[in-house]
Each structure stands twice: as C-alpha cells, then as structure tokens.
Write a structure and sequence with these properties.
Blueprint: H1 7-27, H2 36-44, H3 48-53
Helix pairs in contact: 1-2
Length: about 60
C-alpha cells in the first residue's frame, strides 16, 4: 500500500477518530466504534476510498 494521505488529512482523521471513540466510551454505545476507521487510516496513511475516487492528498506521494 502506497500512502495517499497528506499530513493535515491524517491529523484531522486522527482527531475525529479519537473524538468518536471517546464518545463511545462516555455514552457506552457501540456507534462510536466507527471512530476506529478514521483512526486506523490516519495511522497507516492510506485510504481505500481515495484509490477508488483517484484522490491523493499528499504532495510527496
């Protein structure tokens, strides 16, 4: 997998993922577990949806 996400995109996704996971823990709901998806994509720097739509948000890729 070649990285296709830029630094700003990864930071934003990481923050959103952490917020969703925090909401899941505070309100004891499994819906917040959706936050795992943006968190994992932020950590690995690869988004499968970007490949489908032909998007790259990183300059050095």
């Amino acid at each position: 997998m070649k990285k296709n996400m830029g630094k700003a995109d990864r930071i934003i996704r990481g923050i959103i993922g952490l917020i969703l996971l925090t909401i899941a823990l505070v309100y004891h709901t499994w819906w917040g577990a959706i936050g795992i998806i943006p968190l994992v994509t932020a950590l690995i720097g690869f988004c499968p949806m970007y490949v489908i739509f032909g998007i790259k948000s990183c300059r050095e890729c």
